């Protein structure tokens, strides 16, 4: 008879907890969506997406998501390049500073932005000439900006690590084959 080690028991316990705490609730929600009255109704729950209101909500959500990806990438790419290819990489405290939006809970961040940018909010009280800019915060572009500022550390970390791992040999091979690249500064 084989005895289980403590590590093996911990591993199985973790999988069991994962199944009970994550997979079971998700399964129950999906079952409830496709079987609201206890009987399977096919793809009837997906028919809701055919209604004009929900189609518009879905389209706006996809537009917002695309805008945030583009905005966060535009913020992260130059910063990742500078931190991977210049002498700034020795200043590790900048990485910690960049990760602050990542470590801030979204609820706290959104409340801070709302309190700062609402009519007669903190920005207008401190800088009255900004009263013409603060209404723009509550538009599509304002939401894209705020969400991009909150999510760009994800893309930054991935891009910086990728650029740091590209060795000199790959850059030389690229230049031999006609590619243009930036030399290390």
TrEMBL record:
One GO process term, biological-process aspect: transmembrane transport
Q: Does the keyword Transmembrane helix apply?
A: yes
Q: Which chain regions cross the lipid bilayer?
A: 12-35, 62-84, 96-116, 136-159
| Main localization (coarse) | membrane
Is Transport a UniProt keyword of this protein?
yes
Q: Topology versus the membrane, per the UniProt entry?
A: Multi-pass membrane protein
CDD domains xref list = TM_PBP2
Location of the ABC transmembrane type-1 domain: 58-185
Localization (cell) = Cell membrane
One Gene Ontology cellular component term attached to this UniProt record is:
plasma membrane
Q: Which UniProt keywords apply?
A: Cell membrane, Membrane, Transmembrane, Transmembrane helix, Transport
Note the PROSITE patterns from the entry. ABC_TM1 (PS50928)
The entry sums up its family as follows:
Belongs to the binding-protein-dependent transport system permease family. CysTW subfamily.
Question: Which PANTHER family does the UniProt record give?
Answer: INNER MEMBRANE ABC TRANSPORTER PERMEASE PROTEIN YDCU-RELATED-RELATED, IRON(III)-TRANSPORT SYSTEM PERMEASE PROTEIN SFUB
* Name under which the protein is recorded: Iron(III) transport system permease protein
Species of origin reads: Alteribacillus iranensis
């Amino acid at each position: 008879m084989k005895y289980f080690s403590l590590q093996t028991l911990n591993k199985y316990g973790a999988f069991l907890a994962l199944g009970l705490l994550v997979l079971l609730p998700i399964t129950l929600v999906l079952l409830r969506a496709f079987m609201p009255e206890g009987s399977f109704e096919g793809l009837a729950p997906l028919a809701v997406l055919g209604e004009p209101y929900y189609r518009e909500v879905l389209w706006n959500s996809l537009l917002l998501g695309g805008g945030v990806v583009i905005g966060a990438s535009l913020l992260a790419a130059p910063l990742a390049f500078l931190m991977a290819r210049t002498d700034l990489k020795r200043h590790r405290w900048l990485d910690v500073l960049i990760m602050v939006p990542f470590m801030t809970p979204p609820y706290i961040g959104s409340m801070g932005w709302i309190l700062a940018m609402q009519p007669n909010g903190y920005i207008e009280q401190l800088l009255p000439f900004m009263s013409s800019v603060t209404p723009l915060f509550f538009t599509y572009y304002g939401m894209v900006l705020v969400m991009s500022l909150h999510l760009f550390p994800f893309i930054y970390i991935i891009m910086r690590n990728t650029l740091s791992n590209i060795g000199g040999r790959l850059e030389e091979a690229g230049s031999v084959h006609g590619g243009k690249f930036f030399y290390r500064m």
